[in-house]
Amino acid sequence: MTAEPTTPRTPGGPPKSVRVRPYQPFDLPGMYRVCLLTGDSGRDAGALYHDPDLLGHVYAGPYPAADPGLTFVAADASGVLGYVVATADSAAYERWREDHWYAPLRLRHPESLAVDPGDGSRDWQRVAQLHGTPLRGDDPLYETHPAHLHIDILPRGQGAGLGRRLMSALLEELRERGVRGLHLGVGSGNPGARAFYLALGFAEAERREWGSVMVMDLRERGGSGR
Fold first, then answer.
1. How many whole angstroms separate alpha carbon 22 and alpha carbon 142?
2. Whether the predicted model's global pTM rises above the 0.85 cut
3. Is 177 helix (H, G, I), strand (E, B) or coil?
4. CB atoms within 10 A of CB 58
5. What separation in angstroms does the CA of 218 have from each of 66, 79, 171, 180?
6. Which residues contact 76 (CB under 8 A, 6 or more apart)?
7. How far is Cα 123 from Cα 121, in angstroms, rounded to an integer?
8. What tens digit of pLDDT does each residue of 209-221 get?
9. Over the stretch 78-96, which tens digit does the pLDDT of each residue have?
10. For the purposes of burial, counting CB atoms within 10 Å of the CB of 208, is it exposed (0-12), middle (13-18) or buried (19 or more)?
11. Are the beta carbons of 51 and 130 closer than 8 angstroms?
C-alpha cells in the first residue's frame, strides 16, 4: 500500500508533512509514547503510571508482534504521532497473546503488584490485566465481527484527517483479507471518539458500564470514511 501525505498545522508552527504508512519495527518506541500520551481517554496518562511502558504492553505492542500487517502509523520528521493496531481474528489473537506476550510479561510484573497502592496510579490495573483470567473467545461478536482495533493520535496530529487515513488503510487491508466485520470499545469518557466512529460508519451494538461496543460490517463499502 502506498503511503499518503497530509499536512496538519501545529499551533505556532508551519505545516508539517505527515505520512501514513505500514508499521516498521523501529516505530514501536514512538507508538508506546503515543499510547501513554493519549492513554487517559485521549489525554496524557503519563502522571498515572510509574512504568511508562505498561499501557503500551497491553494496548499497542502485542498487535504488531502478532500481525504487523495490520498496524499503520502516521509519522512526520519528529517521529510517530499516531497509529492504528488491529487483529483480524480476536479469538486467535487472545490465545496468542496469552501464550506468547502476557506469559513472559508476568515474570517482570508479578501478580503481587496487582493491588491498588492508593496513590492514584494505574500500574496495578494493567498488571491485573496481565494476570487476569484469559478470555474464552466464544463471544458471539467474534463470529460476526471478528476483527478489533485500537487507534491513538497525539493532539498535534488531530483535526487533519489522520484518523480517517489510518482507518482507511486498515479497512482496506481487512477487506483484502476477506474479514467480515470489525468491533471496538469506546470509553464513556471519550465522546469525541464515539462521534468519530459513528461518522466513519460504525454502529453502536451495545452499551456497557464502561462505554459502548461499536461494530462495522466490512462487507458494506460505505464504512471506509472516504
1. 25
2. yes
3. coil
4. 21
5. 22, 31, 8, 5
6. 16, 17, 18, 19
7. 6
8. 888 999 999 987 6
9. 999 999 999 999 999 999 9
10. exposed
11. no
